[in-house]
Specification:
heterodimer, A: about 650 residues, mainly beta, 26-stranded antiparallel β-barrel, 3 helices, 27 strands, globular, B: about 300 residues, mainly alpha, two-stranded antiparallel sheet, 2 strands, about 0% strand
Chain lengths: ~650, ~300
């Protein structure tokens, strides 16, 4: 948050400073101002869904210049800065690009996200996520282009969670810190008929998670066997580190004028180790141990490995003008294995009969492993220049294999899920389109057929259909209108007894854009989302089998108008989304933005924004909220 | 398998046959002028393209194709225009006759883009990709060549979400209207953050991380693991087993309104041969306590200590 506010202030100052130093004005576009928020109803639900706050906001900033440095010795051919939503927004971004022909190309991207979640019955968190990526290419456009890249990611913030221990559930506060650094080196090459790139990188991830009992979180209202269940202390500290070296290579070869070959390979090996400690004090009960106990001391050291590689080859052959045949194979392999040495000491235990035996100590060496392989092959043809027609046909086949070894602790605790699972999926994917005089008609049909599922929710037959029609005026008499209609349907089935999966998702949308006059635009759209899903489940409390039904029927209506009547401009839109089915709610949104350009010599404009969101849940009214945001911004374009 | 092969072969032959008879698109300029050409190379006798087309030639200097090719505020030299439009001498001599100059439009226009941008990589193909050039979707459908607006990255004709929405309206409506959705179109997150618009179909259309991982992990790196006890549903990085990436009516962008429903659809081993253990019998789903599985199974993406993902 501090970084975002600092950037929101620093960028305009930087632009002013650069403009002052440059011989000519440097073109930039700045929109900065202040936003006020008013929320009534469930503020936590508002923050979970929207989370835009009051305060200073750099709405947008773009600086683009080819003049910095001046003369032939200048540092940049091009220098560009883009920023958006820095400050009081839940997410902000900054991007810097600089390049000088045939010498270097530099890219830097930064994103900041403030994530908040507080939902009934679920854990809460308020975390910030920062991601910075920078890449420097040397000698771009040359036959060999070395590059270096750095990425820094960070996730941190407080939260609350729950923990079930000794016959009750306790509320814990959480402090999470995760960070990741990545460095990559490599080179691109373009030598003769071969081009591609090779990269070697190293990634390091560190995480620490500290959990402590919240105030009042250790009390229980209901004693068990006349003994209170309470926790006076509960702390847990998890630390983990992951090191991941990775290698990637791709090569493209042009053989003659018609044949292109592509090969790719990427491999990484993630190696993780963790140390975990836990201490609890209070009064607890364990039915599994048939004992009362007054505390717990638990340590665990863990290690896990993930080795993944994927490689493949493709060929594209230009048969004739506009017709390409292609084929490829791809192999993916991933294996995971882990082990944890867990040492648990239950303190001051008593049997339910009141006898005081020795402490119970459990040392468990748990192991797990999974391996996943996928071999895929595809072949097809694309004809994209058949006059107004274009057709594409592709056949794919994927063989998946998953091996899960039951770990030792799962043998002790029932619920083993080991085994070997194989699945073969064949896919026929086709699409065609017709375009003439601004009218487009397109269809895409895809059929997937699998011999068996691995997960219960896997399909055996899936059909996808997508239809689209659009009209865009191409003549002076009709260019003011654009209309589009899209319909999509996905059906998936697995008739296997005991599963009986039957799912259907249908989505339709229609939109129209009318621009009767320059500076005047109307837009409207209707869309509908319907989902119907059924699958057999077993209820754990009574082992009865019954269908699990999920249905959704959502309709949205949107409309807007944009007017540009200098010096005034308006952009107003409204949307209403009504959802029925498993989670019924109504959501209304209104956005209005009014701009007024001050006299041209000032190069300044004023912008007023108003946004309104109303959320109403049909089943539980305590989640409802009304939120209104007003913003006043100054736009400056020197 | 045999029927599919026969079908493919038939379609291939049919396409080849149709193509040989299909009308060839107008040819783009045969010999593009190097983009580095400068005003000094201009024949002095000819007027500048910008004399008549100032509205396009002047802002073009701020465009990625034209930057550095002309002094500030002036139109780019003719040689820059001729890279795409071909030699304009006949057009100028004919007093601006539209038929005597190549105007890149539609599929034929896109072919002139490919004379420089015909990139093929492990993920991208301009010929066999999802949006491979055709009359209905081509370079000029999404990119606006004369755009002088510096805030338009990649010369996109519109803001990215609005642009993709012209064909993918249902997905765009989900982002705009559903209460739990990624903030696409705001603060640097765009459709292309997860999708490679020039990629091949299927999984190759995803903008994978440098390590070939699903794009979700590019931001949600903390879910990557590896863990001692990995949730098998995410073993191949398939977050979409449980989540709706394009926006959901359900909290956490889940596919079901309640967590218990989502979990029990896999964790109900009625039929043999599928992966997914059974929850213990004391989980009475009619009680609110058990309807939100992640209240206790807090480490739902993976745990380093507990096979039941309890901590």
């Amino acid at each position: 948050m501090t970084i975002c506010r600092s950037l929101a202030l620093a960028l305009p100052l930087l632009a002013f400073a650069m403009t002052a130093r440059a011989q000519d004005s440097i073109p930039y576009d700045l929109e900065v101002g202040f936003r006020i928020l008013d929320v009534s109803g469930n503020k936590e639900m508002y923050r979970t869904q929207i989370n835009e706050r009051s305060g200073l906001l750099l709405q947008s900033f773009t600086l683009l210049t080819t003049d910095l440095g001046g003369g032939s010795s200048k540092l940049f051919d091009r220098f560009r800065v883009d920023a958006a939503d820095l400050g009081a927004g839940p997410a902000g971004s900054l991007r810097i690009q600089a390049d000088k022909a045939d010498l270097y190309r530099f890219r830097l991207g930064y994103r900041h996200v403030n994530a908040f979640s507080s939902l009934p019955g679920q854990h809460t968190y308020e975390r910030t996520r920062d991601a910075l990526d920078a890449d420097l290419d040397l000698l771009p456009n040359g036959s060999v282009t070395p590059f270096i890249g750095v990425s820094l990611h960070r996730l941190s913030g407080p939260g609350t969670t729950t923990y079930t221990l000794g016959g009750d559930e306790f509320r814990l506060s959480q402090n999470l810190k995760e960070s990741e650094q990545e460095v990559r080196l490599g080179t691109g090459f373009n030598i003769g008929f071969l081009s591609g790139s090779a990269t070697q990188g190293w990634r390091r991830t560190r995480s620490s998670d500290r959990l402590t009992l919240t105030d009042g979180g250790g009390n229980s209202a209901d004693p068990l066997f006349g003994r209170p269940i309470l926790a006076s202390e509960l702390t847990r500290e998890d630390r983990a580190s992951v090191n991941t070296p990775f290698t990637s290579l791709f090569v493209t070869g042009q053989v003659g004028k018609r044949v292109r070959l592509v090969g790719d390979f990427v491999r990484f090996a993630a190696d993780s180790s963790g140390d975990l400690t836990e201490a609890a004090a209070g009064s607890f009960v364990s039915f599994a141990l048939s004992r009362f106990f007054n505390g717990l001391s638990d340590t665990a050291s863990s290690s896990a490995k993930n080795t993944t590689w994927r490689g493949g080859g493709r060929v594209e052959v230009a048969l004739t003008e506009g017709i390409v045949a292609f084929a490829g194979v791809q192999k993916d392999h991933r294996d995971l294995e882990g082990s944890a040495l867990i040492d648990t000491l239950f303190l001051q235990t008593l049997t339910f009969g009141g006898i005081d035996p020795r402490d119970v100590q459990v040392i468990l060496n748990a192991k797990s492993s999974m391996a996943r392989n996928e071999d895929a092959a595809n072949a097809g043809a694309s004809a994209r220049a058949l006059g107004p027609f274009a057709v594409r046909v592709e056949f794919r086949e994927a063989k998946q294999k998953l091996t899960v070894a039951p770990d030792l602790s799962q043998i002790v605790v029932p619920g083993s899920q080991g085994g070997n699972f194989e699945r073969r999926v064949k896919t026929l994917d086709t699409n065609a389109s017709f375009t003439k005089s601004g009218f487009t008609l397109g269809a895409a049909v895809r059929h997937d057929q699998a011999d068996r599922p691995i997960f219960r929710t896997d399909f055996r037959n899936r059909d996808r259909l997508r239809l689209r029609a659009a009209l865009k005026g191409t003549t002076s008499a009709t260019k003011w209108i654009r209309v589009g209609v899209t319909a999509e349907e996905t059906k998936q089935k697995n008739d296997q007894p005991g599963i009986e999966l039957d799912g259907k998702v249908r989505q339709t949308s229609a939109d129209v854009e009318v621009t009767p006059h320059e500076g005047v635009a109307f837009r409207a759209s209707l869309s509908r989302f319907r989902a119907d899903n059924s699958i057999l489940i077993r209820r754990p409390e009574n082992f009865n089998t019954e269908p699990s039904l999920y249905a959704e029927d959502g309709r949205s209506h949107e409309g807007g108008v944009a007017l540009s009547l200098a010096p005034l401009s308006f952009d107003v839109s409204a949307a209403r989304f009504i959802n029925r089915g498993a989670n019924p709610f109504d959501l209304h949104r209104v956005r209005a933005r009014v701009g007024f350009d001050l006299p041209a010599r000032t190069k300044t404009g004023l912008i007023v924004e108003c946004e309104k969101d109303e959320y109403r849940e049909r089943n539980a009214g305590d989640a409802d909220f009304n939120a209104t945001r007003f913003g006043l911004f100054i736009r400056y374009r020197p | 398998m045999r029927s599919h092969t026969t079908l493919l072969a038939g379609v291939w032959l049919a396409l080849t046959s149709i193509s040989s008879r299909a009308q060839q698109p107008p040819a783009p300029p045969a010999t593009p002028v190097p983009a580095t050409a400068t005003a000094a190379a201009e024949p002095e006798a000819l007027p500048s393209c910008g004399d008549c087309h100032a509205d396009q030639a002047t802002p073009f200097a701020a465009n990625a194709h034209g930057h550095g090719k002309a002094p500030k505020g002036e139109a780019v030299p003719n040689a820059v225009c001729e890279v795409c439009h071909g030699d304009g001498t006949a057009h100028i001599e004919a007093g601006g006759d539209k038929s005597s100059i190549f105007t890149p439009r539609g599929l034929a226009g896109a072919e002139s883009c490919l004379s420089c941008h015909d990139v093929i990589t492990d993920r991208i193909s301009r010929h066999a990709g999802v949006h491979a050039n055709s009359a209905s979707v081509n370079c000029l459908t999404c990119h606006s060549m004369h755009k002088g607006e510096p805030r338009a990255p990649h010369l996109l004709a519109k803001k990215e979400l609005a642009l993709c929405a012209t064909c993918h309206g249902t997905q765009a409506a989900s982002f705009r209207n559903k209460p739990y959705a990624h903030r696409v179109g705001r603060a640097g997150m765009e459709c292309s953050s997860c999708h490679e618009p020039h990629g091949r179909p299927g999984r190759e259309s995803l903008a994978r991380t440098r390590l070939g991982e699903t794009p979700c992990l590019g931001c949600h790196f903390e879910k990557r693991g590896p863990y001692v006890f990995q949730h098998a549903a995410g073993v191949d990085g398939d977050c979409l087993t449980c989540h709706e990436a394009h926006g959901s009516s359900n909290p956490k962008m889940l596919k079901r309104a309640t967590v218990a429903q989502l979990c029990t659809e896999c964790h109900s081993p009625i039929a043999a041969g599928t992966l997914g253990s059974q929850p213990p019998s004391f989980h009475n789903l009619s009680l609110p306590r058990y309807q939100n599985c992640t209240t206790c199974h807090v480490a739902v993406h993976g745990s380093n200590r507990d096979p039941q993902l309890l901590r």
